[in-house]
Amino acid sequence: MPINFPQLLQDSWNFIRNRRQFSLTAMGLLLAIQLLATFVLSNFMVSDSAVSLLPSFLIGIGNIFISVLLVLNINDINAGTFQSFFQNTSKALAKLLPAISLNIIMVLPLSFGMSSILFGNISGSGASIFSLPLSAIGIFVFVRLNLAIYVFLVENYRVGQAVKFMWQLAKGKMAALFAYTLLANLLPILITALVGRLGDNVAIMVLSFVISAFLSLFTTILGFRFYQTIRPKTVN
Fold this sequence. Notes:
About 80% of the residues lie in helices and about 0% in strands.
C-alpha cells in the first residue's frame, strides 16, 4: 500500500508536541553527548589524530545508545506501559552491542564502495571499475536494512533474525524505504551541514548541535511510525 509520508511526518511532530517532557529529555541527552565529546574529551592530552577521531566515535556510540533507549521507550508508550524515561536503561545497555553490530552490518557494504572512491581520489588514480558497483550494492543493502534496528528492538529478535526479517519485509517496499532513507538519513545531514556553513563560532556550533539533536529525535520517531506502518499485522 502507498505510504503517506506527510501524515507520518505530522504524526511524528505531534508526538514531540504531546510528549514535551519526554522530547526535551531526549534532546538534552543527545545535546549533552555532543557537547561533552566536543568540549571536554577533545582537551585530553592525546595525539592530534586521537583528538579528531575520539569525539566522533563517542558521539556515534552515545547516539546509538540514546536511539535504542528512545525506541524502547516509544514502543512502551505505544503499548501503554511507559512510566519514566530511564525505565529501559538497563535493557538499552544490554542491547547496545548487538545494536552496534547491526549498524555495522548495514553500513559495512556501503563503506567498501565509499572507501574505494575515496582512495582513488586521494591516490589520483580515480575510482576503480569496482567502485560504483560496490557503492550501488552498499546503498541497496543500507536502504533494505534501514529499519532493522526497529525490528530488533520492537520484536525482540536476535540480530540475525532481525536482518532476515527486514530483508524479507522490504520486498516490494524498496521505493518507500528509499524515500524514508532520504528523509531520515540524508536530509538531516544536509540540514546540519548547511547550518554549519553559517559561521565558525561557538554560537553556530551550539545551534548545529541543537538542530542535530532535534533531528535525531524526530527521525527516530519517524522510523518507528514508518515501521509500524509497514509491519505485518502478525509477527512470529
